[in-house]
Specification:
- By secondary structure, the protein is α+β, with helices and mostly antiparallel strands.
- It has one domain: Alpha-Beta Plaits, CATH 3.30.70.120.
- 27% of the residues lie in helices and 34% in strands.
- It has four helices and four strands; from the N terminus they run βαααββαβ.
- It has a four-stranded antiparallel sheet, covered by helices on one side.
- InterPro entries: N-reg_PII/ATP_PRibTrfase_C.
Amino acid sequence: MKTRDATLVRIHVPVAAETLAAMLAGDGAAAERDPVLAAVLAVIREDNPLGDFGLYKGVFELGPGWESFQPGADARPTLGEAGHMTLSPTAIVAVHAPCPPQDTALATALDRILAIHPWEVPVIEIVPVRMAVR
């Protein structure tokens, strides 16, 4: 088996409860109607390493989920309030890039996503991985 180096980026994106409900009901197009999620997906579809598989561009995986958290006294959450457990409807976007995590073009794309993300502490995982290739 041949492999290649890549970077996995997993972005937890808050979505409206209606968006998550529509996605769970099988309406994949609901992602395009959610303003934050649609903006993140637009960055992935731009000319950058995110989702670049050579023959295919803008490739990503999208899963529904929930983010649980309790804001501290000094937090300024976009959802919930200090001291109270909150459950946020969330879409998890997984996207691969054919470059190392320190690649300049990848960093630029991730900076754009960070600027879009409304959370005080965005959950964006960046992991070097090996991918199987033909």
